[in-house]
Fold this sequence. Notes:
The chain is α/β, with parallel strands linked by helices. It has eleven helices and twelve strands.
Amino acid sequence: MKFTYISLISLLFSTGNCAVQQAPFQLPVKEVTPAHGRFLHITDIHMDQHYVYGATIQSDCHRKPKKHKHKKKEQGLLAGYWGAPGTDCDSSPRFVYHSIDWIAKEWKDKIDFVIWTGDNARHDGDPYITRTQKEITGYNQKVTKALQEAFAHPDRTIPIVPCLGNNDVHPHNQFRGMKNNPQLLTFSDIWSDFIPADQQRHFKRGGYFAVDVAQGIRVLSLNSLYFFGSNDVVNSCSDPTSPGARHVRWLKKELKRAERDQVKVIIMGHVPPTVKTFKDSCLDDYIKLSTRHADRIMGHMYGHANFDHFQIISRQFSSVSTVQQDASRFVSGLRKQYRMVKKVHDRSELVAIHVAPPLLPLFQPTFRINQYNTNQSSPQFGQWLKYTQYYSNLTYWNEQRDRWTHKPIPPVFEIEYETDKDYHLPDLTTASWLDFAERLGSKKHKKIWKMYVANLFVRTNNKWYGQSVPDSSDSYWRTIKDLFHWFF
């Protein structure tokens, strides 16, 4: 998505072209052994091969200035070596490759699997360089290869579970439900090592699949584009012949299969289900299935929206999931949503949707390490326990040079916050998120609300922290408002 309101199965065996590929996932659950109780969530990479260090922000970081009389004064208006945080620019390939390698070196010996929730291609914002299907395919091939190679492990296969993003298809947002969709056939080839053999037909037909990533843990990778309100080339899920309705039937069967197999499920996709983003009947079906199988679902994990937040959706209280389109009202609208939770008598009707912030440096680049219960003798097996959010301050790293060589120093990631230590969440069950929503909506917890908002924007230096209404004339908020219009 074009900066807006706020999946990977990898690896192993060499091929003739030196790419490290993941062993096909055809193992029964009992043969897949979790080792660590952690998994990585990475999303919205948005690689841009046209990114130029020193280019103007106005050109989407694609072209250097012809004249720059006040270079020192206006240096902040130019693209940084590693990226251009806080701007419309996409991710430099240099930063994407470095980040993937850094994350893998730090975490591949400590995690069980990866979920990768889409949007690997740049946005189509530069009128002078129109984005093509070939270019989009190229980005997905490059990022897939980078992830496979980085997460290759000599002793085991680390599953990487991908999904389609709205910027991974062409045209943008538009994705038809035709048989033998050429784009799905292309992705089925790019991700052939990621998709189990018995799920290939589902992916080639609809762009979704299920995969066992650890003992007793299954991921359902959705094609949210068939539910997406902005995809106007397919009908809503109320039409039984639509690709969305077919997708819902698949999801229903998979959740029933999970009940039969007694496995825990992670539902992941790109576009998060909300009143604003999903077609009405598709959202209703999603909520119905989610509440019916709530005891089987570990969590709902998405990307797309860029802001680090969670939403509460409900069939009977649709306004709970409404967030204002105007970015200047986004935060206050979100808080109103949280305040409504205490008015709901039957909380079993509520679903918590989690949106991870991007690797794209819209604010500062991020990734998320999640933890879950691996004790199969415990009633809490598969329970989502916590996550740690990491970020890298590219504003700082763009300025760092080696003392002797004067070469740029590669960025590192650091902890931004942890849900147990900073939010005081005992676990990440729906009940805990609903309790947290109540706290965020209460006037008695201003300190934690302020922290939540700071994290929502990945601690970028904006003027909204601690305020009730942002100044709509502020240039930062005008920029964010413009980004919202790209999303909706």
